[in-house]
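re: ur question from yesterday

yeah so i grabbed the chain u mentioned. its 110 aa long if i counted rite. heres the sequnce exactly as i have it in my notes:
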Amino acid sequence: MYMYKIVRHKACPAIRSNNFVYLKKQVDMSTAEIKLKIFREIDSFEERELNEFYGILSNFINSKRDLNDWDSLSTDQKEGILKAINQIDAGKGISHDKVISKFKKKYTNA
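ran it thru and got these structure tokens back, copy pasting raw so excuse formatting
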């Protein structure tokens, strides 16, 4: 395994964060050493940094699951999702706020 140096990067254009952590490849390292290095870095995080890192890690893990989910969809399902995305991109969607407002008015006295 390669050793990765944990680096704090203050200005990452891909993330709207002031403190993004990424791993920079350095030298060979065992799995146990990598886990210990990551644990030590995470253990030093302040609450805000820890929450941010948890979100990044969750997104990473879920993106792998999402890819597997996509592969299990039928062609019709995939086409429907892509069509919906294109409609949203073209401004043909209805905002969350408008939908909530409509149903609050409709079911307020129900």
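noticed a couple things. Residues 2-72 form one domain. also The mean pLDDT is 77.
anyway ttyl
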